[in-house]
Amino acid sequence: MRNGTGSPLIGYADLAERWDISKATAGRYLRKMQEIGYLSMVAFPGTHGTAIYLKKYLSTMFQISDVMIDKDEVAMSLNINISIDEAPEEECVSENESGVSKSHTEIILQKVAKVLATQGFPCFSCPRIQCKLLPLSDDCRKAVISTCNLIDVKEYRYLLVMSCKNSTEIFQFEIRLTPIYPEDAEDALLVELALGHDALGTNLPEQKAAVAKAAKTIADFIQNGWQVAITHGNTPQLGMIHTALNELAREHKEYTPAPMSVCSAMSQGYIGYDLQNALRTELIKRGIYKPVSTILTQVTVDPYDESSYTPLKVVGRTMTAEEAKAEEEKGNFTVKTENGYRRIVAAPRPVAIVEIDAIKALLDADQLVIAAGGGGIPVMEQGSSLKGASAIIEKDLATGLLAKEIDADVMMILTSVDNVTLNYGTPQEQPISHMTIDQARDYISQGQFEFASMLPKVSASIDFLESGKGRKAIITTLDKAKDSLKGHAGTVIE
């Protein structure tokens, strides 16, 4: 909170006068809000006062109008992951032992500047600005931001002072640096999470609730220092859209049936919309600023893929024999079911991701990316054009391709079962906690995995692992995702 002079520091006396209450009462209000987790107070030595910031900013600022805190007086708490290499020995301590070495200050400022610029604070780019980091307490006065000194320290607290050469205006920010120790650090930097049906639901209300739950797990990964890329399934959503649009065309002749590629694009859009908003909400609740983007992803397929001659993916509504015959006259395939006939389409292997450069650019900018939803929009190259294909790309295979392209450290496929199992559905059923690539191939040759469920997941895992060293593939449920990273759940393939 500002004290009216441009400084974010304010004392009990200033607040008491502003709120027209006693100094003691102001202190009790603040301590009470601190106890229930609304704000934090940072005491400064001397007469500088107390810095106050809200822990939950957007989610709480409209709940505390009784103490008359203005929106413009609230400082947002941002969670920024900064990787700092060990500094040369001569840089471990600054000259006066009261500040931070120049090289480390610059690294921190680059990260802070990037985030604050999006909040409308452009001063970092001005050549007239001068910055300095200073410890906020005596106990960290000699501390430096270097891995050689991160021993049994939970948090460093610094004051970032920014002054302009051409004015008297001074900005001050509190910087809290929390080291991640080697024994607590995760083994990988980039994880690709493939969300299955359980994480998305099957209709609009279910999807809203499901993505809110999934967002909590994904946010846990981000909070633990992981960079995350997300893919997802879309089978129920795709079927719903395809049926709805084609029924519309059947009842109203002024409309035309929707191609499968268009339905796939629609499903990516509305699933991504719900998912990215749920993630944004969950991250803001945790004080983490990280943009979330959905990329409508096209994936090229081979028109001569063998699956084109043996389509297997069932889509759309149940039809009569006459309607099925009409579909086949159009060049489509149908299959007889218990209740009638349904259309079937090919499931070709993905060849290339069209928007891969955009996806990589967003990841390089440390953003959260949702891409290749439902396996991507299947397209075929025709000269310089891309034409939608009447097909459904297997989501797991597209997940493996994306994981390879972005050079992920871990590919995690989240499904409806805790583990890959041998002899599934028999009394001899046996869960697998770990297997090698060779073991996975052997199980495939034995016919252990169902064609339409576990087989593509294991096949995608093998393909991903063979494309680089030091990688790991995990198959498990959303609830077991975090534990599986430590080898305590799920099936790990490496």
CATH superfamily of the largest domain: Acetylglutamate kinase-like
* CATH-scheme architecture of the largest domain: 3-Layer(aba) Sandwich
Question: Structural class from helices and strands?
Answer: alpha/beta
Number of helices: 13
What CATH calls the topology of the largest domain is Carbamate kinase
Q: So what's the CATH class of the largest domain?
A: Alpha Beta
Strand order of the largest sheet: 9-15-8-7-18-22-23-21
What's the number of domains? Answer: 3
Q: Approximately how much helix is present in the residues?
A: 25-40%
Mass-distribution shape: elongated
What number is the mean pLDDT? 77
Gyration radius over CA: 28 Å
- Assembly state (oligomeric): single chain
Can you put this structure into words, describing what you see?
The structure is a single chain. This protein is α/β, with parallel strands linked by helices and 494 residues long. The protein folds into three domains: 9-73, Winged helix-like DNA-binding domain superfamily/Winged helix DNA-binding domain (Arc Repressor Mutant, subunit A); 89-177, no CATH class; 190-310 and 346-493, 3-Layer(aba) Sandwich (Carbamate kinase). 33% of the residues lie in helices and 22% in strands. It contains 13 helices and 23 strands. Strand 12 (333-336) and strand 13 form a beta hairpin. The longest helix has 26 residues, at 260-285.
